Amino acid sequence: MRVLCEGFPLTHLMVELMNVQPVAEKKKPSKDTHLPWLLEGLVTLVRTKPLGTAGGIVVLLLLVTAVLAPYLAPYRFDAMVGKRLLAPSAKFWLGTDYIGRDLLSRIVYGARLSVFIGFGAVLVGTGGAAIIGILTGYFGGRLDTFVQRIVDSVMAFPWLILVISVISVLGLGIVNLILTLGILMAAGNSRVIRGAVLSIKENQYIEAAHAIGASHLRILVVHVLPNVMAPIIVIATANIGAIIIVEASLSYLGLGVPPPHPSWGGMLSGQTMMFFERAPWIAFGPGLALTLTVFSFNMFGDALRDVLDPRLRGTMKS
Amino acid sequence: MTERPVPLGLWVRVMREYIFRRLLLVPVTLLLVSFLVFALSRMIPGDIVDIMFEQKGYAKDKEEMREKLGLNKPIHVQYVVWVGDILRGNWGESLWNREPVLREIGKRWPVTMELGFMALIIAMVMAIPIGVFSAIRQDSLRDYALRSYSIAMLSIPAFWLAIMIILVPTVWFPSWRGAPPFVPFMEDPLKNLRIMVVPAFCLGAAMSGTTMRMIRTMMLEVLRQDYIRTAWAKGLREAVLIPRHAVKNALIPVMTLIGAQMMILIGGSVLIEEIFGLPGLGRHMFHSIMQRDYPMVSGINLLLATAVVFLNLIIDISYAYIDPRIRYR
């Protein structure tokens, strides 16, 4: 809500994140456990959030799948191993696609791309949001006004349309995709971090640090950054699902990573679409993989937010 | 929330000042938006002149073509000329079929608007009851089920949902086969609505998930307030208390925030219109980008971004009007 109070336009990414509140004071760890707060958060998560934990486990499995794809997949993703459009069978668990490639193998390899682009874009996006948000929130003044206007104008474009425009300018490719999605994510989410920094700045320990002559850099790194870690983590986990969907949508429109790299969105697009009626199973697998992945990320992110957000923390037991 | 503890005169002054400050931001943002739109369209790789000259040949040679399109002037002059034209209502014409950009937009925006509003309505109809129920039965089994449902709605990619909705009936119920061709609303409203309802559902599904969660959070917030406890203590029945005291207040912030989600709907309309073959703005935008038709791309981008800037303005002002705490910051 703080963001609104500044008189700046509200942007859609904030709608989801408006509940994020800064950790104004770090909770002191209780005497018997000396766990760092993030680990403590994870323990709380496992203890109190079964669904979120399940989501986390699926996410872990997905990561393992992505890393070990060459060992897990029964065939290579680009090998034409059977007849075209075979129904699911013991040999091809999910059937084959329209040129006879094993669908399961392609889905397993597709996990790599989704995970890589998802994590890459979120890394760029969260890092960018943190840098922009912390600097503008902390220093304020002209820099803040200027950067906020740029963020406004970027956020004025509908997400997907802006991404399509930018990708068509930059050209297809993994790096372009990660940078585009990451930068757009950074613009939208920097407001959340900025809002958190604005309130942290007012704390007495910041004033005290100034008084004993600490440099801006030291204050930012030692006092501000640790206090915005919770919103940063929440932003990262809350956005990764959406990023994966945008990537799949782009691939579906033919603007994702070019073939032969299998991507879940790409496996549903182009020529494949002509065979959906004859062989419906080729449409099920990739879509289910996508939905399950995004669902798990969202479940995990949601639970993590509840645990890390001190305001909601109180409501969990009520 | 309608109570005003401040004198009316002061309230009017503060409100006026807020609106004034907020209005000042609009031209600045619009200027930056126009920079972005212009830069985006001029950075498209591959010389548009080459492509057009080979395929269409509007002019004798490439130099003449460049001159015709105004591409031989320096870039800042091109920008000034472009902005001047826009302000005079001359948005240029499509590089491909010579249709004026404004006329093309005028032909297509009603479809996208209709789709967007229907999606909005469908999303709200699903979201409000579920969100409210989920909040008043917090942490029950049903709450968990409904929350999982809302996250599931958020997690299904709209294009896959659309594919499934088209595909499943054609496989298992062959008699449903074949989507009817698009009919404009003005020609046959009923038929038009029947065609639009499925695309609108696909578009609205994700939004219903987000909105559900927002409503639940807001409801939980409201339910913790003292006046709700007072109402309980008075012995009000749940059937009165929830709709009259809680839902009404929880929905005010949600309603203003929903406007912001319209933007996501516009973005999503690209996919949905493409899949269902609806002649709307999103689909046209996508094809224009693919064809490097940059007067068209710039025009649509500019229009959409301007609409969003004003939408945000309206949201902020209405929010300040509803929630007095904002104005005093």
Number of helices of chain A: 13
Mean pLDDT of chain A: 79
As a percent range, the share of helical residues of chain B equals over 70%
Query: How would you describe the oligomerization state of the chains in this entry?
Result: heterodimer
Distance between the termini of chain B: 18 Å
CATH architecture of chain A: Orthogonal Bundle
CATH topology of chain A: MetI-like fold
Assign the CATH class of chain A. Answer: Mainly Alpha
SSE series of chain B: HHHHHHHHHHHH
Level of helix content of chain A?
55-70%
Describe this structure in words.
Chain A is mainly α and 318 residues long. Chain A has one domain (67-310): MetI-like (MetI-like fold, Orthogonal Bundle). In chain A, 67% of the residues lie in helices and 0% in strands. Chain A is built from 13 helices and no strands. In chain A, helix 6 (103-139) packs antiparallel against helix 7 (141-155) and helix 8 packs across helix 9 (174-201). The two termini of chain A are 23 Å apart. With 329 residues, chain B is an all-alpha fold. Chain B folds into 2 domains: 14-96 and 291-329, no CATH class; 109-284, MetI-like (MetI-like fold, Orthogonal Bundle), CATH 1.10.3720. In chain B, 76% of the residues lie in helices and 0% in strands. Chain B is built from 12 helices and no strands. Chain B is flat, with a radius of gyration of 25 Å. Chain B starts with 7 loop residues before the first helix and ends in a 7-residue tail after the last helix. The mean pLDDT of chain B is 80. The chains are: A mainly alpha (318), B mainly alpha (329). Chains A and B meet through helix 2, helix 7, helix 8, helix 11 and helix 12 of A and helix 1, helix 6, helix 7, helix 8 and helix 10 of B.
